């Protein structure tokens, strides 16, 4: 949806090649995309009176009587788009129906989708990530936050200035909206957050997982249909192995975006955006960054160890565990301080 017109539009198109919308005031230029399974096709058209380009999304009837799920999807997408007024989300324009199906009209954005573009520089991918997060911040700051549910390269358009545009709100829902069982796990495998696969409530962190998966595809120059090649036997992305050239700080940011448990991801797009802004994409970690990572890892191991001890301990050993925890904590803090002072001393030592 929203791909640029190749070689421009010249002359009339045979009426039997595309649907005839002349009575509605539009003429199709070409097909932009097709979801055969869902019975949806997207066309680029122009208004006969103004020559303005427009996108027409078709919800085709499989039978003479419209399927209730098609009607619901059509109405749901329109309702969501009518809530949005963002410059990088194509605006809802109009809708109409014919004997063949329902049709929804949207603003046309002159930008190709990510799926048709390849070999972005890592720094450019960071700019794209920031641009998408800015859109998500707007969607999530509403009284009733909007969750897109299908962020992937096909649904992101990017212009020459690396401005991102988010399209296809066919699966989008307001946070907290009740969904039928048939609407669960309808996203795209590999980009769908684990909580959606298992029917758990979606949150602002759900779209962050999909964006993280999209960024990993871009960084590894992997087509979205081959995303399974980047996921290990435990259904997790191993960023350290597939992105060895990427700065460790950026690796950790990405890993947090695609954490399996949504509680371990960034809470929302605003937090993820703020964390990303100052993170370098390329290069090795500095000594200070390495130290901070090591300290964080040691603390995590220490806390996990205490949790295990607390689980297997009997009630009568509570005091002993508390004393042991305090002693271990002091030892760990002493080691961390020693390591920190050693690195600081090394960094401040004059060259001979």
UniProtKB/TrEMBL annotation:
**Keywords assigned by UniProt, alphabetized:** ATP-binding, Kinase, Nucleotide-binding, Serine/threonine-protein kinase, Transferase
**GO MF annotation terms:** ATP binding; protein serine/threonine kinase activity
Identify the domain of life.
Answer: Bacteria
Q: Which reaction does it catalyse?
A: L-threonyl-[protein] + ATP = O-phospho-L-threonyl-[protein] + ADP + H(+); L-seryl-[protein] + ATP = O-phospho-L-seryl-[protein] + ADP + H(+)
What Enzyme Commission number(s) appear in the record? 2.7.11.1
Which InterPro entries does this chain map to?
Kinase-like_dom_sf, Prot_kinase_dom, Ser/Thr_kinase_AS
Which Gene3D superfamilies does this chain map to? Answer: Phosphorylase Kinase, domain 1 (3.30.200.20), Transferase(Phosphotransferase) domain 1 (1.10.510.10)
Going by the record, the broad EC class of this enzyme is transferase
**Record domain Protein kinase: where:** 26-282
SUPFAM superfamilies per record: Protein kinase-like (PK-like)
Record-given protein name: non-specific serine/threonine protein kinase
